[in-house]
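Task 17 of the worksheet. Students: predict the tertiary structure of the chain below and write it out as structure tokens. Keep your answer in the requested format; marks are given for formatting as well as content.
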Amino acid sequence: MTPVETLRGQSIAVFGLGGSGISTVRALVEGGAEVTVWDDNVVARERAAHAGYRLVDLARADWKGFRLFVLSPGVPLTNPTPHWTVKLANAAGVPIVGDIELFSRERAARAPEAPFVAITGTNGKSTTTALIAHVLREAGRDVALGGNIGTPVLDLSPPANARTHVIECSSYQIDLAPSLAPSVGLLINVTPDHLDRHGDLARYAGIKERLAARSEIALVGVDDEICRDIYARLKERGGARRVEAISGAESPIADIFVSRRRVIARSESEPVVDLDDARALRGAHNAQNAAFACGAARVLGVKREQIVRAFGSFPGLAHRMEEVACAGRVLFINDSKATNADAAEKALLSFHDIHWICGGRPKEGGIESLRPLFARVAKAYLIGEATEEFAHTLDKAVPFEPCETLQAAIAAATHDAMGSKAREPVVLLSPACASFDQFANFEARGNVFRAAVAELLNRRHAAAEPTIGGGA
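Model answer:
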């Protein structure tokens, strides 16, 4: 934990008592602040009361007594309309911040030179964050990994000169962190997203740009027009001490880019790393993530041989094109996180001879947009509520089999893949659907896939073993 000692003795209000909210309350209390908490959810309030925290209905509180208001990132700050607590805080002139801001203040007070890598972007930030942390750990560094990727930032060990914090930041978190100033800031890409929360694309992009602009070293993607414009502005005004352009493809302006699956630093003759040696980084979409991770590792002083070794051992993220098993030539890939067609597209682009398990609760548009990739699919195995809709889309284009359940689909897909003559048949769970018709969430769906594959392969292995012992 990082106790928030910079607010010792101050009266602080906290709204939102989910994972990051409770983490914030613990850190504030540990640091000596006087904390008042509230949540619209009764169950969340009961949990907080049971833990001994001071509950006060903020709708009836005297806001003039609060030094600061800490808002959970999931609560609307501006759009579509500010939350009622935001209106009260603004009316009372109480500054509104989030947990990333509290961490930034603690770093400034405790160890302002402590390495702090902050990563944002519309897509790819979780993989990039995890990969950077893995590279640094493999190089022998003390690494604290968290933020939007999982562990709340204030649950991590405190900033220290010999410890590197690698923190994923969402646009919501950046919006609540006015003093965020990483030593290395990564802006991977910007495409339209969360516009209901930010009002329009310009505001959303501006929030993302803020992280890079306040970094000592900024690594900015140049694979989309918005980020190219941001890169040009930062170079022109010199807001960051150093700005580097990063690309997942060949680019005339990039300092680090990818060519023929090799990450290239323009200043060096030898490639930094060959991505064909990194099984967890399959697919064109991972090229950009790999280029950013290489860029961050290099500016943090990691040697090339350490980067190469770490890329080879990187396990990837759970439920994101996760290789869960290999039986002979057959790969089993868990891409349960692909809850829409755009996400599933990345997996379909990464393999051939695909035995595709798809379905669940369908999203608007279904899988029609994936039609150009149907030639990569040997057969589809349909599950859940989307079965009829997907069967109609696949009709006459891809052989398919309605399976209803994930377990039935795994058994059918495994049987067919084992009989394939392809060089590397793939049993791919990439549902292009929400999970809620049959599972609590995509994680539960992916865990069932993992377990069912392991059980099926164990049964096949046991059946293939010769019987020992014998007859009369």
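Marker's comment: The radius of gyration is 24 Å. The CA atoms of residues 44 and 73 lie 16 Å apart.
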